[in-house]
Amino acid sequence: MTDVREHDVVDLLLEQHNQIKILFSQVAAAQGARKRELFEDLVRLLAVHESAEEQVVHPAARRTIEGGDQMVDSRLHEEHEAKQALSDLYELGVDHPEFDTRLGMLAQDVITHATHEENEEFLSLRRNVPADKLVRMAGAVKAAEAMAPTRPHPAAGESATANMLAGPPVAVFDRIRDAVRDWSRSHDDS
User: Fold this and answer.
1) How far is CA 167 from CA 1, 29, 45, 102, in A?
2) Fewest CB atoms within 10 Å of the CB: 35, 52, 112, 130?
3) Which residue has the higher pLDDT, 27 or 188?
4) What percent of the chain has pLDDT over 90?
5) Pick from 175, 74, 178, 64: nearest CA to 124
6) Which phi-psi region, left, alpha or beta, contains residue 157 (left: φ > 0; alpha: ψ -120 to 50)?
7) How many CB atoms lie within 10 A of CB 179?
8) pLDDT value at residue 159
9) H helices of the chain, where?
């Protein structure tokens, strides 16, 4: 009988990193309404992913990894920069002449950030946190994502506390905006 490891938080986040990389490529290659739809998917995935990491993963890394504070502070700085760039790109819109150039720069920064997480934080978590706790953390990440904002809000901060206090009300607002946008598109006669 083979040993089958349960899906843990690192597995979940690695899958999301792969989805993010694929979406960046798809957005860059798309045009028109499809580009906008894919970009909105990317914005949503990045927003909920980072929010959940800030609530669940980074605090665990601070507590369990030697040098975790410095490692997490570096990742939070990168996340703040990415949120600001993503927010600016969202406001710019996919039809703006600078969109593709800025998207390419953001993709490079996000992929570099993900590589740091994968090679430093995630590996350290796997070495220092019991497997059953990593599995439970995957559930906590999924729960945090369900309550996370669907757009970047750089002014809200990157701490677990900021995400838990500001996240749910902002998430409700974001999700209402998403629903109205989707309804409007589905009922647009043009």
Assistant:
1) 44, 32, 15, 26
2) 130
3) 27
4) 60
5) 64
6) left
7) 10
8) 47
9) 9-29, 32-52, 58-64, 68-92, 99-116, 123-128, 131-146, 160-186
pLDDT at residue 146, rounded to an integer? 82
* More confident of the two residues 175 and 31: 31
pLDDT digits (tens, 9 = 90+) for 110-123: 999 999 999 999 99
- Cα–Cα distance measured from residue 160 to residue 124, given in angstroms and rounded to the nearest whole number: 20
C-alpha 166: how far from its chain's center?
16
Q: Cα separation of 167 and 172, whole Å?
A: 9
Distances from the Cα of 85 to the Cα of 7, 59, 75, 76, 125, angstroms: 32, 24, 15, 14, 28
For residue 126, give the amino acid letter: R
Q: How far apart are CA 23 and CA 41, in angstroms?
A: 8
For residue 168, what pLDDT is reported?
52
Q: How many CB atoms lie within 10 A of CB 140?
A: 16
Q: What is the pLDDT of residues 69-97, one digit of tens each?
A: 999 999 999 988 998 999 899 889 999 99
Q: Locate tokens 């900021």: which residue?
A: 162
Distance CA 124, CA 68 (A): 9
DSSP letter (8 states) at residue 151 = S
| Two tokens, residue 55 | 């609530």
Q: Within 10 Å of residue 127's Cβ, how many Cβ atoms?
A: 9
